[in-house]
Design brief:
Helices cover 0% and strands 50% of the residues. It has 994 residues and is mainly beta. The longest helix is centred in the last third of the chain and has 4 residues, at 911-914.
């Protein structure tokens, strides 16, 4: 007697990659749901397609896509671009460099001449000079690169060592240093496998001249050679080159035939394309360079003069082009005022051609590292040594003319300043696009009548040039995170605010003419002002006031104002002078609004003559930090890793202190986000560093590495009073976030990617694992999270699988959109837009179903369907697929059974040929007496199962289209199975029975 049958309908329930496939799944769960949406759930319909709206860019490297005031803004590893007239146009340099820092040594002693080497075996070695009881002691520290934990702390190098430099060489880290007791160059070798047991010191050279002028570099990688050059104590020929092999074998000394020697500084560097060995040096009168081959056997470039009259050169560094044998030499030229130091530049080709000419590429700074190349572009760390705001800047070669512009800043206000000695730390490229540089940082220990700083300690900075910016539109600007906070105003990309405020203003009382300031003591203060493309006024902090005593009709006053030379702003910056009346304290504007005094990046100072009488300035604008109630001064924020807006303020997470968030004053029309270094929130170390921030109703959520916190309140007034931001409070969870680009606001709260998957922080602060059903994608980093316009869907673009995860928050269902290799995404003109690594922008095309002309195909795979329970036995007689016909397509149906993913049966359904449009039929699939006349109509397909006696079945549907035109294809409403279940368990083979 045949088993009685029953009909079991199956509605689609979306993607589920987490449920145990051996369990009887809920009918309708899909292990694959490609290119579908759930607008009429449980019906599955096809997603919209995308069209390319701009041609690709040579070199590509797409990083960020954002919308701003009806524009599309894109970013690659070097520049920012905006979309117009079907193409992307450059808007200036905007490297998305991400900065991380770590302490190396911070103690009661002062440190100087830091340097570092990263060995591939997993150790980092840092060297430095420690000033202890008035004596210089050279030491080294070894750290575990992965955990940043110390292995060796402050081990002494020799007894009279100075200027130590470490290098990864073979299976060692070699520390080369100068021994002052005998003027020898010596080294110790630290085995990478056993860093606690270094090899005893060995002489590298015994003939160096007094003055310890030398430099070294590794050429040819870890298993290349260490090349060293120094000034020797010989008679005629004063220059020596020498090598050390990876197995610590000394090479023979090579002495070029020249009577010249090194004065103050020298730099040796390699040409990666040919393994040339370049040497650039200062003779005491000129900057010169020469080159040898890798074996030091042949002179490849004879001694050439790069600058015959450079001034006094303190430091020199060089880097070679990776493709054309051109050597680029940078040298630091000193001045009486450290703010007037500058870096000059020149080049020399393989043929000996020098030029095009000597150029000052960066003013007001000195070299703080050797220059280095990332993705074909020269970078260098420089130091600004002002009296109150010493800061390091990462500079990049900014265009065809040799000029370097800031692309990041480090230790703002607490930097180590200019190098103590004429030797530069290495910039170690530890992987593609990741560079490691040691530096000095002062410790703030308190304030009384001004900020007081302690000794300088050694830190290490890592610049990731493959970092990803987070973009946010706020107060008429688009802000982007990075090694400095970037700003796009619709016309140019530049730094937000001003890296430095004016300092070092001097006032001179001049005799011999009628003066207009009234007799008495006058004070003067200066700020920078800049108007952006939308008319917002950007203001720096004021300078420290300078005083001058006017004598009425017998004298006048002239101000000499150091210029702002560290900026990427391409439109004029105004130098705005404020002054008081005689013996008063209110500062009034003195410089003209209509004929402003302009800043110059190519001059060290500008001057301003005070010509206004005291009575004439009463009605002028007062400086913004005075008056009633006044405001705190504007201080640009540090490098930042995450950004959000909350209560009318812009918040950023400090890259150097990722437990601290800076926030701006509340936005005011006509002004940008204005920060102050007192406007900060600091969290505890519990839960780790802050990985992202986002607003949720009346709370600011701090998403940490292993947890969440929140704060609330409105924050301080512009003058800094009445700050009611609460101390961040924890939210119970173990699912934090380190990826700010994965955070998205949606009606139920905040969705974000944790290290455990995609979570939802509800508006009641409950935390739920909303991404459980797409757990198979947890290993992929989310590159953007976007609420799609005109729908109830959230799209998460993924790095790696050429796919997007899409969550329908009304239906609570997930799907995967395939073939979309997005690196970033946003909404634009009410549509979804995403960026490809080639810098092509894809824009949603509603009602069209191709991606750049390629068909979009629906693909589904059900879970294992067991209608008789776990290990039950059943007869599955028929399957009916029901849906809607939309356009010609082929539907391939595959059936697998008994937990074997290999299909046992396949059928290809071609509706366009199997159902003839316009022909009546009253039998078969549709069983209706109306013509199939091209109108959308429901259709059904019956599949007779070839293998009916099964424990479970799996259905695989894959749509294809033949073209040349492609359409929506089909919609799917569900399945129906005709099943007869048997009682008891299914049979197993004898060898599986016990």
């Amino acid at each position: 007697m045949p088993l009685p049958s029953q009909t079991i309908p199956v509605q689609f329930r979306g993607l589920d990659t987490k449920t145990d496939p051996r369990q009887p799944a809920v009918p309708g769960d899909l292990t694959r749901a490609e290119n579908v949406i759930y607008d009429h759930w449980p019906r599955l319909t096809k997603r919209n397609g995308f069209q390319i709206i701009n041609p690709p860019i040579v070199g590509g490297g797409g990083i960020t896509l954002a919308s701003f005031k009806g524009q599309l803004f894109a970013q690659n590893p070097l520049i920012g671009l905006s979309y117009a007239q079907g193409a992307l146009a450059s808007r200036g340099y905007a490297e998305p460099v991400q900065l991380t820092t770590q302490p190396v040594v911070r103690n009661g002693y002062g440190q100087q001449t830091p340097d570092g080497a990263i060995h591939p075996a997993g150790i980092s070695v840092y060297t430095y000079e420690s000033i202890e009881a008035g004596s210089t002691v050279s030491r080294y520290t070894v750290m575990d690169t992965a955990t940043q934990q110390p292995i060796v702390i402050g081990a002494q190098i020799g007894t009279a060592a100075v200027k130590p430099k470490p290098f990864a060489l073979g299976n060692y880290v070699v520390i080369l240093y100068w021994e002052t007791s005998n003027s020898h160059l010596r080294y110790i070798a630290i085995p990478a496998a056993s860093p606690k047991t270094p090899i005893s010191a060995v002489d590298f050279a015994t003939d160096p001249a007094a003055g310890n002028i030398w430099d070294a570099t590794v050429i040819g990688g870890q298993y290349g050679s260490l090349f060293v050059t120094y000034a020797n104590n010989a008679g005629a020929n004063k220059i020596t080159l020498k090598t050390l092999s990876p197995t610590l074998v000394l090479g023979s000394a090579v002495v070029p035939v020249t009577a010249e020697t090194y004065s103050t500084c020298v730099s040796i560097f390699g040409d990666p394309s040919s393994l040339w060995v370049w040497v650039a040096y200062y003779t005491g009168a000129a900057v010169k360079a020469f080159a040898y081959d890798y074996g030091l056997l042949n002179v490849m470039q004879t001694f050439a003069t790069l600058d015959a009259a450079p001034g006094t050169v303190r430091n020199i560094g060089g880097v070679a082009s990776p493709s054309n044998h051109v050597a680029y030499v940078m040298y630091e030229v000193s001045a009486a005022d450290t703010r007037n130091y500058q870096i000059k530049w020149n080049s020399i080709s393989a043929s000996g051609s020098v030029g095009p000419s000597v150029s000052s590429v960066a003013r007001s700074v000195g070299l703080a590292s050797k220059p280095f190349v990332v993705f074909g572009i020269i970078h260098v760390l420089v130091a600004y040594q002002g009296s109150i705001q010493p800061t390091y800047f990462l500079m990049v070669e900014g265009g065809a003319s040799p000029v370097y512009i800031p692309t990041g800043k480090l230790a703002p206000g607490v930097g180590g300043g200019l190098t103590a000695k004429s030797i530069l730390p290495e910039a170690t490229q530890i992987s593609a696009g990741v560079v490691h540089v040691p530096y000095l940082q002062a410790d703030q220990i308190g304030s009384s009548g001004g900020v007081v700083f302690s000794q300088k300690g050694v830190q290490a900075a890592t610049f990731d040039f493959l970092g990803q910016s987070q973009a946010l539109e706020f107060s008429d600007q688009l802000y982007l995170t990075g090694a400095q906070l970037w700003l796009y105003d619709g016309a140019q990309v530049c730094e937000a605010g001003f890296h430095l405020f004016p300092e070092g203003i001097t006032a001179a009382v001049n005799g011999g003419g009628a003066g207009t300031p009234d007799a008495g003591v006058h004070q003067y203060s200066v700020i920078w002002e800049w108007m952006d493309n939308y008319g917002n006024l950007h203001r720096s902090a004021p300078s420290t006031p300078v005083s001058a005593t006017a004598t009425g009709t017998t004298a006048n006053i002239t101000l000499t104002i150091p210029t702002l030379r560290i900026t990427t702003k391409s439109t004029p910056i105004s130098v705005v002078v404020y002054g008081t009346q005689a013996n008063q304290s209110i500062f009034y504007r003195l410089t003209s609004i209509t004929s402003p005094l302009l800043n110059s990046t190519t001059a060290d100072t500008v001057t301003f003559a005070v010509t206004a009488s005291d009575a004439s300035i009463i009605g002028n604008e007062q400086i913004y930090t005075t008056g009633s109630p006044g405001e705190v001064e504007n201080i640009a924020p540090p490098a930042c890793s995450a950004i959000a807006q909350f209560k009318g303020r812009l918040f950023v997470v400090s890259s150097e202190d990722p437990y601290t968030t800076w926030f701006s004053k509340q936005a005011v029309p006509g002004f940008p986000a204005e920060f102050n270094d007192a406007f900060t929130l600091t969290t505890t170390r519990t839960g780790g560093a802050i990985g992202a921030i986002a607003a949720l109703d009346d709370k600011l959520i701090l998403l940490k590495e292993q947890g969440l916190s929140f704060t609330w309140g409105d924050g301080p007034a512009p003058n800094g009073t009445s700050n009611d931001f609460s101390t961040p409070a924890p939210i119970p969870t173990d699912a934090g976030c380190t990826n700010p680009r994965s955070v998205v606001s949606m009606p139920s709260g905040l969705m974000y990617q944790s290290q455990k998957g995609i979570y939802l922080l509800g508006r009641d602060l409950s935390v739920n694992y909303i991404g459980a059903r797409v757990e198979a994608y947890n290993g992929y980093q989310v590159t953007a999270a976007v609420m799609l316009p005109g729908s109830r869907r959230i799209a998460f673009t993924l790095a790696g699988p050429r796919a997007m995860l899409v969550y329908d928050y009304l239906a609570g269902l997930w799907a995967v959109w395939t073939g979309l290799d997005a690196v970033s995404a946003c909404t634009f003109q009410g549509k979804f837009a995403w960026l490809k690594s080639t810098m092509e922008i894809f824009l949603e095309t509603p009602g069209q179903f191709t991606d750049a002309g390629n068909p979009i195909n629906i693909g589904l795979t059900t879970s294992w369907l067991s209608f008789a329970g776990l290990s039950g036995f059943e007869r599955v007689r028929h399957l009916i697929i029901r849906g809607d016909y939309r356009s010609p397509h082929i539907l391939q149906v595959s059936i697998a059974s008994d937990d074997n993913p290999g299909a046992t049966q396949t059928a290809s359904i071609v509706p366009a040929t199997q159902l003839t449009p316009g022909a009546p039929f009253d039998v078969g699939t549709f069983d209706v007496e109306t013509p199939f006349d091209g109108q959308f109509m429901a259709y059904e397909w019956r599949i007779h199962l070839a293998k009916q006696k099964v424990t479970n079945v799996q259905i695989i549907l894959q749509e294809t289209q033949a073209g040349p035109s492609y359409g929506e294809g089909l919609q799917l409403s569900g399945f129906a199975f005709e099943v007869a279940a048997k009682s008891g368990l299914h049979r197993v083979r004898a060898e599986q029975s016990f």
